[in-house]
Amino acid sequence: MRAPGILGLVPARNRRLPRDLSWPLTPSDIRAALGEQVADAADVSFVDQPRGDGTLLHVEWTPPISSNYGSGIHPALWYSVSIRVAPLPSTERAAARSILREHALPELAAWIRAAQRAPEAWTLTRHSRSWRTAGSTAVCTDDRQPYR
Q1: In terms of residue numbers, what domain contains 69?
Q2: Looking at the record's lineage, which domain of life comes first (predicted)?
Q3: Is 74 part of any domain?
Q4: Most buried of 27, 50, 79, 141, CB within 10 angstroms?
Q5: Cα angle, residue 17 at apex, residues 58 and 37 outer, rounded to 5°
């Protein structure tokens, strides 16, 4: 059985970040969007550095990857999702939070549900989706492709 995610363990304002940066989402935002069971199973982390491409929210599917040399992913993490939240300038936090809660979080929840029900061929490879804000909406990209 997989260890529970870290939701609830990272405060919204953590001094790991410089004073001019903030995370646009809180653990509570993610838990509310995903539901308790999915949120507890997800590996959620809040990264320290803004992403160069403006990504604020990223989810990745972990397929079964093994190695003969001990560098594979532990089987407890196979068929799971990792969620990363990146910081942005504090002055942009309120607007970004509203946009992500309205657009990206429902899409995140749907993406995870679809991943959990996906055909075996899909689940055997790594997949991801990322979101950033664009004006008054959120745009996404799949599998680390550039935003359009």
Answers
A1: 21-142
A2: Bacteria
A3: yes
A4: 27
A5: 40
